[in-house]
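hey can u check if this looks right to u? its 74 residues, i copy pasted from the old doc so theres a chance i mangled smth
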Amino acid sequence: RLCVGTVHSVKGGQADVVYLLPDLSHSGMREWTRPGEGRDSIIRTFYVGMTRAREKLVICGRWSPASIDWRPSP
């Protein structure tokens, strides 16, 4: 079975494999670019998404201009 949704829409659920994309809404991207509580909230949301995987977590690359770059800095 395949379930596609946002982290918020599947909150509380788990799956054997989770694909997590770094894309944000436009308002989420505005929050991400400013330090503080908004950015911290987005970090916590991604953490929730990561912890939904029972067996495998796949961290996907950027899909749109409104996405974070979570590659490690050189």
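The two ends are 38 Å apart (CA to CA).
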